Amino acid sequence: MTMPQDWSACRLNDAAEITMGQSPDSKYYSDEEIGLPFLQGCAEFQARFPLPKLYCSNSKKIAKRGAILFSVRAPVGRQNIAERDYVIGRGLAAIQGKQVAQPYLEHFLTWEAPKFSAASQGSTFEAINSSELASWPVIYPTDCAEQSKIAEVLSTVDMAIAQTEALIAKQQRIKTGLMQDLLTRGIDEAGQLRSEATHAFKDSPLGRIPVEWDLARLGDVADVNRGKFTHRPRDDARFYGGSHPFIQTGDVAANVGRIVDDFSQTLSTMGTRVSNEFPKGTIAITIAANIADTAILGRPMYFPDSVVGAVAKAPNSIRFIEMTVRRHKPALEQLAPKSAQSNINLETLRPLVIALPKPAEQERIATAYEAVDERQISNEQSLRKLHHLKTALMQDLLTGKVRVTPLLQYAKEAASA
After folding, report:
1. Per the omega criterion (within 30 degrees of 0), is the bond before 205 cis?
2. Which of 279, 288, 302, 349 has its CA nearest to residue 321?
3. What pTM value is reported for the model?
4. Residue (of 265, 303, 284, 290) closest to 341 by Cα position
């Protein structure tokens, strides 16, 4: 790798002090808060700081406060920061910068994480040993001020990422609570959530519901049909690779509650002859593996037999029906046979009893939910942009390809946009 003339390269054990963890005898650690918190590996890692569950009274190997906690076993390269002293087991190393500033080193090792992972693969037990870690090459600007500025730029973006993630988590909690309210209390004609203090409710097999609501079976408000793929063997290449989207359970699980346009497989014309296509707006419901995950098709797609399609009957709201099925996920999971291949079928879904408002209220409920969801989607898009920004900045700044001074203000402005 070429680097600027005013940069240097060295081994990690020259750039930093490395302490390899060593597991104490189990008699010295427990969940009682005696001694120092103990980390065997990265299982207790969080976004930045670990959340220990055990404590150790026999301190053999210590990660001092401020050290980089570095996972040397699968997943190799994952990091946290020690916000206090820790006893570390053999799954971790503690890294403390000496020749290279600690903030710069933290970002450099984060950038190198994919390389650490790749270097550790291929063995029976994915890991990196002390000599490999010690000899890992580090490049850095010799000017300590430039190291600090690089770290400041990247930390600015990290802060924006953390703030956006916190906002998304808060929005998710709000959305979950709102969905519960909307599907049990509804929205009256004045646009207000009902309450039993101001509106009439009645008992039902699903609990208390507004008196205006009815009960219905899913099969009464939607055409519910299972996907199919009847060809055997399923790995025959002639049936795949065409232009026809063939959605899988994983595609639905990755887009729960959302419009799904992406797909992980396609069918050839021959493949479409042994499957069945569902129209745009179909509610996709998984019935195997991740039971009762739901998403709404943004385009026509073909389904395998592990996905059911529910096409809402007019004038019912597609979004309302999707929300209702999603709300019943825990109950549907309980109805699945307790076996290695847990699944449900049409005989479970079609008779599913749901609480049903009039179509106009279904639309009010759908609109209220989607307004909150759109704000979350916007923040998720912002988060992806921040991650892309950080990746680009790391590639430029940690190689010396772009010098840091003119980018400091740019990073601050982009992160606050």
Report:
1. no
2. 349
3. 0.84
4. 290
- For 301-319, what is each residue's pLDDT tens digit? 999 999 999 999 999 999 9
282: nearest Cα among 224, 365, 207: 224
Answer whether 386's CB lies under 8 Å from 157's CB.
Answer: yes
Residue 31 is which amino acid?
D
Distances (CA, A) of 61 to 30, 38, 75, 102: 17, 10, 21, 20
Residue 22, phi-psi category: left (phi > 0), alpha (psi -120 to 50), beta (remainder):
beta
Q: Would you tell me how many other CB atoms lie within 10 Å of the CB of residue 145?
A: 11
**Residues shown for the chain:** 417
Beta strands in 193-335 (DSSP E): 201-202, 209-210, 214-217, 222-226, 240-246, 259-260, 265-267, 276-278, 283-286, 294-297, 301-303, 307-312
Two tokens, residue 283: 């509610």
Residue type, 230: T
Tens-place pLDDT, residues 145-158: 999 999 999 999 99
**CA dist list (Å): 173 to 187, 193, 231:** 20, 18, 43
How confident is the model at residue 158, as a pLDDT?
96
